[in-house]
Amino acid sequence: MNxxxxxxxxxxxxxxxxxxxxxxFGGNVALKSVIxxxxxxxxxxxxxxxxxxFIAASVIALQVSNQFLMSGADTYIGGFLxxxxxxxxxxxxxxxxxxxxxxTAITAQIANMKVxxxxxxxxxxxxxxxxxxxxxxxIAGAFSVMCVVVLAEFIGILGGMLVSYFSVGLHPNRYFNSxxxxxxxxxxxxxxxxxxxxGAIISTVCATVGYNTVGGAKNVGESTTKSAIYCTIYLLLxxxxxxxxxxxxxx
Length: 251
Known about the structure:
By secondary structure, the chain is mainly α. It has one domain (32-243). The chain contains 8 helices and no strands. The protein has helices at 7-25, 31-70, 77-115, 118-124, 129-168, 172-182, 185-211, 217-246. The protein starts with 6 loop residues before the first helix and ends in a 5-residue tail after the last helix.
């Protein structure tokens, strides 16, 4: 880890985000551009995101099902898994997968534009490159990741149900009844907020790394690697902050 990962980089991300929002509210963002980025960020990463969450939920269900059954608490398997999925697993794993898949692609695209002087050409044309490149990706990332997280939650709960049924014979009715009783709307709202926040973080951080790239093709590859690391760290920090704000304050 080099000295680029410091407070100044975080400040750059915040400045770029604010500049992109000003550009957005100025009515300069084309809907077509947002839809294109949403397809690249959300749809192209949908398969890998859902698969990771499905496998994670299945593994957890496999690990806890026998323990719950031995203690006579098998009726709580569905609720326990749903809470774990919606609070942490689905938002976290889906966002990390999208960051690794789509976030690095964002970095490579913008870094390539930077080293080939396309960004300088935008400045000559008096177009704000931060707003032009960042705004559509931030908007698309926020809404795309949010939608992927919601789908991942459904897929994860379904995966847990299948594993519980085939491993300990838990009937799906008992499983979903537990989910319905133990889950509350607050967790769902927070998971949706997490998806929205994580999507904005992925786009902002990865675009900033790409925009800071100087040099040639070798530096584009280095920036792509950096963006994967930075994105992971900032996502985990944001997850910790959200958990502290919404859950730790209740005690």
